[in-house]
Design brief:
The chain is α/β, with parallel strands linked by helices. The chain folds into 3 domains: about 5-245, P-loop containing nucleotide triphosphate hydrolases (Rossmann fold, 3-Layer(aba) Sandwich), CATH 3.40.50.300; about 245-335 and about 420-495, Rossmann fold, CATH 3.40.50; about 350-420, no CATH class. About 35% of the residues lie in helices and about 25% in strands. The chain has 17 helices and 22 strands. The strands form 5 sheets. Strands 6-7-8-3-9-10 form a 6-stranded mixed sheet, sandwiched between helices. The longest helix is centred in the middle third of the chain and has 16 residues, at about 175-190. The radius of gyration is 25 Å and the shape is globular. The two termini are about 35 Å apart. Bound molecules: adenosine-5'-diphosphate and magnesium ion.
Length: about 500
């Protein structure tokens, strides 16, 4: 057994009294690619930030090549040879490729100005040595996202990193870009560097890693060599069997109730948008909730945006009520009978305006045309507030004073008044407490039972399982699987994604 390059023992980390990591052990060997998996919130990023010197207050010990280390900053960690590519890229789109490679360490001429010629030459040489084909003089922002990511990795390597941490790097990459990333990672390992690779894409993890560690609820669950495990093993360890509330966790499959006889309200054929989703053919029926599940970057959020005309699909057709429509702008989508509640509700709602205005905003045009009467608005809103149990039940309160869950109820409430044909919900219960989630489920069911076709897109299995009558799973931009009239749980969803 080769000795560990990096060794962590008994690492715990709290955020304001909440444990993100609980006595975690972790080992990285020289020259290995170590996959790290776990559900959202399992503590993966937190541990990586400890290794990379971003979080400096924690319990436990860290050894690097057998010596105890205690980083006081990310710079300390960099100097010790540890580089991290964060989930959000930190390269600068408005600078050139060469400037990004050198970020923070530009070579200077004798008179103290930046030595552009040298920078370009060295960047070109560095990129060529990594097999990255990019013009050093090009503006980074003009390059495809996948290439930008490779350049961020190049930057981390250029700063001398021997240990490279990649936190969910594949979520925005297309299959050829992922192949390119993987061949770069393999070459780096052959050259003696070590890599920690975090991803939700378990097939990717199994394809690239030598060994895999699973985290669950801030704890280290298992570490195994890739040859001795499979995807089912990973999922089982990620989800666990020790849930206190089985119904809530959806470990136990639920039965889907599809409605194949109801009329189709919205239908797409081979809808596509380069880099986001391809060949999406789906139908939503009256009175059904179609759940579209996928990991972040699988294309379902973009699909939802393009159905509502926030993004223009490049290929394919959309029919609403049997009639072909050209979407592409939100006003056209709305005229065609679609409604959309986006993942960030801030953009839809007016936080400083009172609750009653937010409830009636979509019918405001209608009211204004007839007669502009705040009193009428307030009457409608008052009824909704009561119906939906919006708390506190005061129509005149600014919306911003309500909790996220209650704001979401307000966002849904207005569609009870002005019934769309199809309602598209993106991440409808993200970040909510259990009570607010149940309220949202109730409202969505009610809208459904009134005959509205509902599309719910989410990266959370629980959200999809609690709402959907039928489920499509998207994987890297395409529909990978449909679940209808059958039993499905978290396990099956994760395995299909
Ligand atoms: N800066 C922070 N402040 C407060 N809580 C945090 C912070 N970073 C992470 N957490 C919490 O710690 C837990 C683990 O988060 P994280 O390490 O990001 O998980 P993962 O990367 O596995 O999804 C989560 O419950 C998260 O909400
Ligand atoms: Mg993370």
């Amino acid at each position: 057994m080769p000795e560990s390059l990096l060794e962590l023992r008994g690492v715990s980390k709290n955020f304001g009294g909440v444990a993100a990591l609980h006595e975690v052990d972790f080992d990285l060997k020289a020259g290995e690619i170590h996959g790290l998996v776990g559900e959202n919130g399992a503590g993966k990023s937190t541990l990586m930030k400890i290794i990379a010197g971003v979080h400096t207050a924690y319990e436990g010990r860290m050894h690097l090549v057998g010596r105890p280390v205690s980083f006081r900053s990310a710079r300390d960690a960099r100097e010790a040879g540890i580089g991290m590519v964060h989930q959000e890229l930190s390269v600068v789109p408005t600078l050139t490729v060469a400037e990004n490679v050198f970020l923070g360490s530009q070579p200077l001429t004798r008179i103290g100005t930046i030595d552009w010629a040298r920078m370009q030459n060295e960047a070109a040489r560095h990129l060529a040595s990594l097999g990255i084909d990019a013009d050093p003089a090009a503006l980074l922002g003009s390059l495809p996202l996948g290439l930008q990511q490779l350049i961020e990795i190049a930057r981390v390597l250029f700063s001398g990193a021997r240990i490279i941490i990649l936190d969910e790097p594949t979520s925005a990459l297309s299959p050829p870009e992922i192949e390119r990333l993987f061949s770069l990672l393999r070459r780096l390992c052959e050259a003696g560097r070590s890599i920690i690779f975090i991803s939700h894409f378990l097939d990717d993890i199994l394809a690239i890693s030598n060994s895999v560690t699973v985290f669950r609820n801030g704890r280290h669950v298992a570490t195994e060599a890739v040859g001795s495990i499979d995807k089912a093993w990973l999922i089982e360890n990620m989800i666990g069997r020790d849930h206190e509330d089985l119904a809530q966790s959806y470990v136990k499959p639920i039965m889907l109730a599809s409605r194949p006889e109801a009329p189709v309200l919205l239908e797409t054929k081979e809808l596509g948008h380069a880099g986001s989703f391809q060949d999406v053919s789906l139908a939503v029926r009256a009175g059904e909730v179609l759940g579209i599940y996928g990991f972040l970057g699988s294309g379902q959020l973009e699909l939802a945006r393009s159905l509502f005309g926030k993004m223009r699909a490049e290929r394919g057709t959309v029919r609403i009520g049997g009639r072909r429509v050209r979407l592409g702008t939100t006003s056209r989508a709305r005229r065609a009978g679609l409604a959309f509640v986006p993942e960030s509700r801030r953009s839809m709602l007016f936080a400083h305006e009172p609750v009653y205005k937010n409830v009636s905003i979509s019918i405001l045009q209608h009211i204004a045309r007839v007669l502009l009467r705040p009193a009428a608005e307030r009457v409608i809103a008052g009824a909704r507030i009561k119906e939906l149990d919006i708390r506190p039940p005061r129509a005149t309160l600014p919306l911003g004073a309500l909790s996220g869950g209650n704001q979401q109820k307000v966002a849904l409430a207005k569609w009870l008044t002005r019934k769309p044909k199809v309602l598209i919900l993106s991440e409808p219960t993200r970040g909510m407490d259990v009570g607010a989630k149940e309220d949202v489920v109730r409202i969505v069911r009610r809208l459904r039972d009134e005959g509205i076709g509902i599309i719910v897109v989410s990266t959370e299995p629980e959200t999809i399982l609690s709402l959907a009558d039928r489920i499509l799973v998207m994987k890297k931009g395409v529909i990978a699987r449909e679940f209808a009239s059958e039993a499905v749980g978290k396990n099956e969803l994760l395995a299909a994604a």
